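Propose amino acids for all 235 sites.
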């Protein structure tokens, strides 16, 4: 009988080659409103470990030179609340601008390791508007970095993950008389924020967020003499 050791060795080598070098981390479409960020992740961490910042994932504009970016503040802003339905837990989420493009960073309570399972929903909510979800269609996701400063040199674990802004802004019906009336279909659990602008760049809220009731909702506002634009965002 011929020896079986070479066959066993070949199987072991094939298993190591097919199972150790390919990343198996999957991200669903990212949901982005002006004050909320969420993404579903499933799978295991890749074998290619970054040099440092092993407890962080960075969501970055694939086009660093793209302007304007999807983050509206001029500095880093931490989320008011955050969570991950899997393990390890999150210690915080922040977002801001940088030389490599706007970013949102997820910081876990412990380092991530190659082969580690990472499955669940990551989410963060800010107390004010920090995103313009219609300025970007996709994000790249990096694990750590090579030097702790240049974040896009980390391990690329997700490329061109689509951003879903469909719940960020709804299309209201607007009628103008001496006042403006905005009507929209609402969903329980979501909050609707009417906004106005005089230049389509700087948007100001009309009052506070309005909780959805599941029915059609409306709000009327007095019209001033200057040109005004109106929109409705969802938080």
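Proposal:
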């Amino acid at each position: 009988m011929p020896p079986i050791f070479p066959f066993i060795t070949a199987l072991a080598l094939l298993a190591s080659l097919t199972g150790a070098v390919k990343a198996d981390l999957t991200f669903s479409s990212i949901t982005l409103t002006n004050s909320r960020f969420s993404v579903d992740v499933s799978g295991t961490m890749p074998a290619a470990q970054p040099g440092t910042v092993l407890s962080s994932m960075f969501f970055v504009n694939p086009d660093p030179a793209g302007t304007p970016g999807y983050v509206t503040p001029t500095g880093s802003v931490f989320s008011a609340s955050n969570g991950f339905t899997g393990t390890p837990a999150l210690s915080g989420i922040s977002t801001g601008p940088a030389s490599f493009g706007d970013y949102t960073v997820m910081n876990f309570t412990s380092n991530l390791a190659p082969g580690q399972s990472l499955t669940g929903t990551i989410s963060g909510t800010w107390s004010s508007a920090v995103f313009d979800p219609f300025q970007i269609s996709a994000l790249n996701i990096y694990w750590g970095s090579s030097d702790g400063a240049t974040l896009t040199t980390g391990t690329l674990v997700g490329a061109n993950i689509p951003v879903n802004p469909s719940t960020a802004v709804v299309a209201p019906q607007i009628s103008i008389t001496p006042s403006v009336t905005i009507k929209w279909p609402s969903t329980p659990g979501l909050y609707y924020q009417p906004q106005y602008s005089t230049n389509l760049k700087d948007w100001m809220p009309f009052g506070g967020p309005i909780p959805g009731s599941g029915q059609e909702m409306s709000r009327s506002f007095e019209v001033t003499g200057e040109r005004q634009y109106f929109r409705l965002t969802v938080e």
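The chain is about 5% helix and 45% strand. Confidence is low (pLDDT under 50) at residues 1-23, 167-171.
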